[in-house]
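A reminder from the course coordinator: this example appears on the midterm review sheet, so study it carefully.

Given structure:
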């Protein structure tokens, strides 16, 4: 590996949407980063701009199969491990449910053992999906959730719940120092257009003038966090001297319906796309909103980007990707400084 004299930070899933932004932010802060990705849903192009950097290594590998030797036997100890390796959008994680479950369970076990061997901190990217279709609103970390353990979302939800259990067992046994972030819906540049998520679908459809797919009647709610804010939250959690006991919600508490999101995207793009209603997916949560009191208290963190600013940056990015000129130039402060 290049530059072996510096401490290493491993980002598993580092070529994904969140992972690639995390690699950027870590390198900008002077860290030396190893990005490990299987490229099942991660994309090489997300980190292509980093490949020439002395502080960046890209290793292809699947955490289900084990940790590549070059990382396991690294002479320089790993200081921190971020586990962001898992497909996160329902169509992608349901495409190979067995592998999704194993990614969370076996993959996390492999990374925890790596953390144990290197004396590294591990941050597990958990999810609001551990709350399932919540009966408590907004969701606090103490809520145990309402997950269907046998439905089509279970491979992801139950896998992530098992991964949390593993993390806290390693911690209880003194085997690794862990931090668990429960990540709520996140959006921004580098979402894959074919991700199947509501923000990427609606923005690409609006820009193309194609029908906007609304699942159900559009009254279900989500709370969307801009990617730069999310990454700040994750890094703040990793940086804490003492690991908090238990998980921490990281997300934006501004809640809106899917219909409201669609209206905002249509207004910002000036699109005349029509709406087309599709069946609500099985076990689709009706409401979701994080209570972020713990993140505020422990990290002094709260999201800073308004939905309007974040959507503008996201729409501009998708427009660039599609080669369209439908929207105004991207807001420079957001797009270059913080993403
Ligand atoms: N959704 C929608 N149209 C789409 C994609 C998603 O109405 O083209 C809905 C989906 O049913 C859900 C919400 O938007 O209620 C958020 O879906 P997403 O897949 O983005 O995230 P998740 O369900 O994991 O929160």
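Designed residues:
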């Amino acid at each position: 590996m290049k530059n072996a004299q510096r401490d290493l930070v491993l980002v598993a899933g580092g070529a994904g949407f969140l992972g690639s932004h995390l690699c950027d932010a870590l390198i900008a802060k002077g860290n030396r980063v190893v990005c490990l990705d299987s490229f099942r849903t991660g994309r090489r192009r997300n980190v292509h701009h980093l490949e020439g950097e002395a502080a960046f290594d890209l290793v292809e590998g699947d955490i289900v199969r084990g940790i590549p030797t070059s990382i396991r036997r690294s002479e320089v100890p790993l200081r921190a491990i971020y586990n962001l390796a898992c497909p996160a959008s329902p169509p992608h994680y349901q495409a190979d449910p067995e592998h999704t479950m194993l990614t969370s369970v076996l993959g996390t076990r492999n990374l925890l053992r790596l953390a144990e061997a290197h004396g590294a901190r591990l941050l597990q990217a958990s999810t609001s999906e551990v709350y399932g279709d919540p009966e408590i609103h907004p969701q606090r970390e103490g809520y145990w959730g309402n997950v269907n353990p046998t439905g089509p979302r279970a491979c992801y939800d139950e896998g992530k719940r098992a991964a949390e259990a593993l993390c806290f067992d390693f911690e209880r046994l003194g085997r690794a120092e862990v931090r668990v972030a429960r990540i709520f819906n996140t959006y921004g540049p580098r979402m894959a257009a074919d991700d199947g998520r509501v923000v990427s679908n609606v923005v690409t459809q609006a820009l193309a003038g194609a029908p906007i797919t609304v699942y159900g009647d559009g009254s279900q709610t989500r709370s969307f966090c801009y990617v730069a804010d999310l990454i700040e939250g994750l890094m703040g959690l990793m940086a804490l001297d003492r690991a908090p006991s238990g998980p921490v919600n990281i997300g934006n508490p501004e809640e809106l319906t899917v219909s409201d999101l669609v209206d905002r995207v249509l207004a910002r793009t000036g699109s005349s796309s029509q709406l087309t209603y599709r069946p609500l997916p099985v076990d689709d949560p009706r409401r979701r909103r994080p209570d972020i009191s713990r993140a505020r208290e422990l990290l002094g963190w709260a999201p800073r980007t308004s939905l309007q600013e974040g959507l503008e940056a996201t729409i501009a990015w998708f427009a660039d990707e599609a080669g369209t000129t439908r929207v105004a130039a991207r807001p420079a402060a957001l797009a270059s400084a913080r993403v």
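Confidence is low (pLDDT under 50) at residues 325-339. The pocket of uridine-5'-diphosphate is lined by residues 89-90, 185, 197-198, 201, 213-215, 220, 222, 258, 280-281, 284 (CB under 6 Å).
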